[in-house]
Design a protein that fits this description.
This protein has 390 residues and is an alpha+beta fold. The protein contains 11 helices and 10 strands. Helix 3 packs across helix 11, helix 4 crosses helix 6 and helix 7 crosses helix 11. The longest helix is centred in the first third of the chain and has 31 residues. 29% of the residues are buried.
């Protein structure tokens, strides 16, 4: 399978089976009790390209047999031709899954061999993270009588895979027939069942992590919010900006430029006397602003205002003030500031600002606890990884 093969696939940025910060991926059978086995023989088998580091017996797969046990006519049906890239507590991660997940992460970007190798290895590490979390979820929840919760989680995962992934991708790629879509995925190097399994396992991993981490997110104190506000002024700054209205008077519509200017000046006077600016624009504008619902001009930040000649005037006005006429090569602009925001910092006493900060603190705690949990689970797991993907 060539993982860089394209086609007309529109990925929508929906990566499968990668970073735990996203949504994604399905359940495995409950973990067997007892110490995890060692995987030297499994990884050293033909096609695994492993770098063996441990010794012990080959682990049993879901049905009590070795994942690559040989039958009289070759490997088992489900593993025939598959290349194992890693084994996590007896669960194999196949190259096919790594390639499919990396393909979606890559999108349409062209990568060098070095960049592709880095992407593949990073993707493999993220799938290993996912696996240690999913395995812990099944081990703990089954041991604590959480079978019903697990079944419900699997049901929701399958439902969300269809809703969030299959239906959206079918629409994006103009497919009506699910079977035709599955064939298309296979031809694109992304088998449907593999993607479904990966997405559902990712979904379970994310939800399980959330249940473990949520208790740490309660009770963000007012002191923490104040400290964050003081430490991160760059995140809470307000840029100088303006929402402005425009009327363009074209000199070509009048006998002389002076006549056009006098007409523009009359519009300034009328607007300053309280006439509705948007209505004046609809009735008199010779450009595009009059076609806008509120005669809004182009650009809100310095450097973005068009035409550039009006920027200085626009930013010199206070909210509600009318300015101009501003002369350009083809006529005159009459402008009004509908909303003015001055550069500075968001006020701390604003409830929305405090909520924003609280959410940022919770996000930091979540990321820290997630990394800690995953690192702890990886430390306890038996993980064998094949040599770097090429």
């Amino acid at each position: 399978m060539r993982w860089w093969r394209r086609g007309r696939f529109a990925p929508l940025g929906l990566a499968v089976g990668v970073a735990l910060g996203g949504a994604g991926c399905q359940s495995a059978a409950p973990l067997a009790a007892g110490p995890p086995p060692d995987f030297t023989n499994l990884l050293a088998m033909s096609g695994s390209e492993a770098a063996p580091q441990a010794r012990g017996q080959k682990p049993a797969g879901r049905h009590g047999r070795g994942l690559l046990d040989l039958e009289p006519d070759g490997p088992t049906k489900e593993a025939r031709g598959a290349r194992i890239r890693a084994v996590v507590n007896g669960e194999a991660i196949l190259e096919e899954e790594v390639l499919a997940a990396a393909m979606q992460t890559q999108g349409s970007a062209a990568l060098s061999d070095e960049e592709r190798a880095k992407l593949l290895n990073r993707t493999l590490e993220e799938i290993i993270d996912r696996e240690v979390v999913v395995q812990d979820a099944f081990a703990k929840l089954n041991r604590k009588g959480g079978e019903q919760f697990l079944r419900e989680l699997q049901r929701v995962a399958k439902q969300e895979f269809d809703r969030q992934w299959v239906q959206r991708l079918m629409r994006a790629n103009h497919f009506d027939d699910p079977e035709q879509f599955k064939r298309f995925l296979r031809e694109s190097g992304m088998p449907y069942e593999l993607l479904k399994r990966a997405w559902e396992r990712q979904f379970i991993a994310v939800e399980y992590l959330r249940t473990r981490i949520d208790p740490h997110l309660n009770g963000v104190s007012h002191t923490q919010i104040v400290e964050y506000y003081d430490r991160h002024p760059e995140e809470l700054k307000i840029e100088d900006s303006v929402v402005w209205q425009d009327i363009f008077i074209s000199a070509s519509r009048f006998n002389t430029p002076e006549e056009a200017k006098r007409f523009a000046e009359s519009l300034v006077a009328r607007a300053r006397q309280g006439e509705d600016f948007a209505r004046l624009a609809r009735e008199n504008d010779h450009g595009l602003a009059g076609q806008q619902p509120n005669a809004e001009g182009i650009g809100q930040k310095r450097g973005d205002v068009r035409p550039a000649e009006v920027e200085e005037t626009v930013f010199s006005l206070r909210q509600g003030e009318v300015g101009g006429p501003v002369e350009i090569s083809t006529g005159y602009h009459v402008v009004r500031v509908a909303k003015r925001t001055y550069a500075g910092r968001k006020p701390f006493n604003d409830e929305k600002v405090q909520k924003e900060i609280r959410d940022k603190i919770k996000a930091e705690i979540y990321q820290r606890e997630m990394k800690r949990l995953v690192a702890d689970l990886r430390q306890k797991a038996v993980i064998e990884v094949a040599r770097d993907l090429k």
